[in-house]
Amino acid sequence: MNEFTKTMAFAGVGAVLFVAAYAATRVPDRAVPDLASKELGQGEPFFPDFKDPNAATSLEVVEYDEATASQRPFKVEFKEGKWTIPSHYDYPADGKDRLVKTATGVIDLKKDTVRSISIEDQEKLGVIDPLDSKSTSLKGRGKRVTLRDKSEKVLADLIVGKTIKADEKRSGQRYVRVPEQKATYGIKFDVDLSTKFADWIETNLLKLDSAKVRRITFNSEKADIRGNQIVVQPGESYTISRKDGASPWTIEGLEPDQEVATDKVSDLTFGLSDLKINGVRPKPAGLTKDLKVSDPGKIEPTSREGMMSLVNRGFYPTQRGVISNQGEVEVATEDGVVYTLRFGEATFATGEALTAGSEDEVPKTETPKGKDDEEKTEKKAESSGVGSRYLMVTARFDDALIVKPESVVQPEEGDLPKDVFERSDDEQKTAQAKIDREKAEYEKKVEDGKKKAEELSDRFAAWYYLTPDSNFKKIALERSSAVRKKSDKPATGDGAPSPFGSPAGRGLPPGIALPDNP
After folding, report:
1. Which of 4, 35, 78, 90 could make a disulfide contact with 84, Cβ separation 3.0–4.6 Å?
2. DSSP 341-390
3. What Å distances lie between residue 304 and 281, 310, 377, 444, 515, CA to CA?
4. pLDDT mean by block of 10 residues, the chain; 518 residues
5. Other C-beta atoms within 10 Å of 25: how many?
6. CA-CA distance, 43 to 109, in Å (whole number)?
7. Dist CA 280 CA 357 (whole Å)
8. What is the pLDDT of residue 19?
9. Distance from chain centroid for Cα 10
10. Angle, vertex CA 479, rays to CA 475 and CA 484, nearest 5
């Protein structure tokens, strides 16, 4: 074999190896041309028997965490008359509309183009089953979504892989595969398969309208544990209030040169109306809705575990109820609902460790013992960027907060009080109709307020919440921050020009003066 022949042989082998390597590594970006589309159902729906989106009563999405080589399942299901999230202690889910939307999107999925029938392509396409225990690959696992009905019958089951390289014809397409089948398809897929806890719940914890807040009382009394005893530390208490939504905020005990720091109060009320839920934990059994200990001296059924659950999160059971280590804030609204917020320990967890924790979770105590410790806690929160704080909430109803019309306040004597102006029968009927209407409106407000307070009380009863520490800092407003020196304003009175002329006019228009004192 001469040199030229050898060179051409080597070149040929190199070309073959190159083509083989390219074929082994490339991701198919076109439909497989020679497959029997009829046999693979090309153009047909994935799940032809799944026609009613309302039939779906559970949705499970499983992702794969390559870093930990473990599955991350997330499930929402309809159980015992309500939507719940099993992975988060059956916390109530606000998921019906989202689930129906997801189900509708899955019903409409059709087998657009066949991309591969090779098992070897599944890793490159990202459609390896995340639940496949036989596969040794850590990469290329997709997201598996399964919808079931109330009898646990599978309505739809699909593995969603990588996004197909976008072009004008196939923008937004994904590789997908039905579990236990070899064929991988390319389809238009815009179904939101969120596994975020926050996307499936009502994240606005209080459901509070800041414009309806009428009174906020701060109580900095705190509890701590020393040795084996719970010690209650006295603290200051003050109240911010306003008569109605248009009135200015006031604080008792203001000095003549002081005023309410309205910007701080605005931040406070916004923080209350936007109080977010980062995570949840179940409270120990034995606590009533108003956080009283149902059996004085212990929390049933496991008193030690229950006690540690509270104490490790910054809440201390006493004969007067639960007292937190960060004080409490009471918020009263014009519809009669009174919220009490008790803030506890800080935590710096992320991901599912934040949203759900774990069954054997024991939070680290972050109780500040002095200024240095407070600064360390703040620096830790700033460095982590995800500081959250435990919170317990109660709600009650106070009808004194609902403004009564005069017709309800004044005692009634007969149908109408004696009319000194001797109104006509028609006028008296009109007046009586107004009284009846105002009374009915007031009674409805009372009933609505009672109902709302009871619903909120039921909602809060079983849970510790985790809320952003930034919310806590806005809400836990010290009196010194709520008050400021009055701003410099143009002077009036003696020594300053009067808007109506000279000081001698005593504020009256020019040419008019008050008579001299006798």
Report:
1. 90
2. EEEEEEE---HHHHHT--TT--PPP----SHHHHHHHHHHHHHHS--EEE
3. 17, 10, 28, 45, 81
4. 51 47 48 56 91 93 88 90 91 84 91 92 95 88 95 96 75 89 92 88 91 95 86 91 92 91 93 93 77 52 70 86 91 96 91 80 47 50 66 94 80 52 76 88 94 93 92 91 76 43 41 44
5. 8
6. 10
7. 8
8. 44
9. 66
10. 110
Whose CA is closest to 472, among 239, 217, 245, 267? 267
Residues 6 or more apart from 338 whose CB is under 8 A from it?
330, 331, 332, 395, 396, 397, 398, 401, 453
Q: What are phi and psi of 31, to 5 degrees?
A: -65, 145
For residues 238 and 206, give the distance between their C-alpha atoms in angstroms, rounded to a whole number: 22
Whether the Cβ atoms of residue 71 and residue 180 lie closer than 8 Å to each other: no
The CA-atom distances, in angstroms, between 168 and each of 27, 172, 175, 186 are 18, 10, 17, 15
Tokens 């098992």 label which residue?
Answer: 119
- Give CA–CA dist 20/26, Å, rounded: 10
> What gap in Å lies between CA 490 and CA 498, rounded to an integer?
11
Q: What is the pTM of this model?
A: 0.76
Neighbours of 317 (CB within 10 A): 25
List the structure tokens of 10: 């080597």
Amino acid (one-letter) located at 155: L
> What is the full DSSP assignment across 224-243?
EEETTEEEEEP--EEEEE-S
| Per-residue model confidence (pLDDT) at position 152 | 94
Q: Where are the beta strands (DSSP E) in 56-209?
A: 58-65, 70-79, 82-85, 91-92, 113-116, 143-148, 154-163, 173-177, 184-188
Tokens found for residue 424: 């006509």
**Residue in 328, 264, 221 with CA at minimum distance from that of residue 482:** 264
Tokens of 515: 């008579």
Tell me the residue length of the chain.
518
Residue found by looking up tokens 């028997």 in the block? 49
Amino acid at 138: L
Q: Name which of 120, 104, 101, 116 is nearest 177 in CA terms.
A: 116
Task: Report d(CA 129, CA 430) in Å as an integer.
Answer: 74
Asked if 453 and 396 touch (Cβ cutoff 8 Å), the reply is yes
User: Are 282 and 462 a contacting pair, CB within 8 Å?
Assistant: yes
* Residues contacting residue 305 through CB under 8 Å, at least 6 positions apart: 284
C-beta of residue 451 within 8 angstroms of C-beta of residue 445: no
**Which pLDDT belongs to residue 350?**
85
275-299 residues labelled b (16+ CB within 10 A) or e (exposed):
bbbbbbbebbebbeeebbbeeeeeb
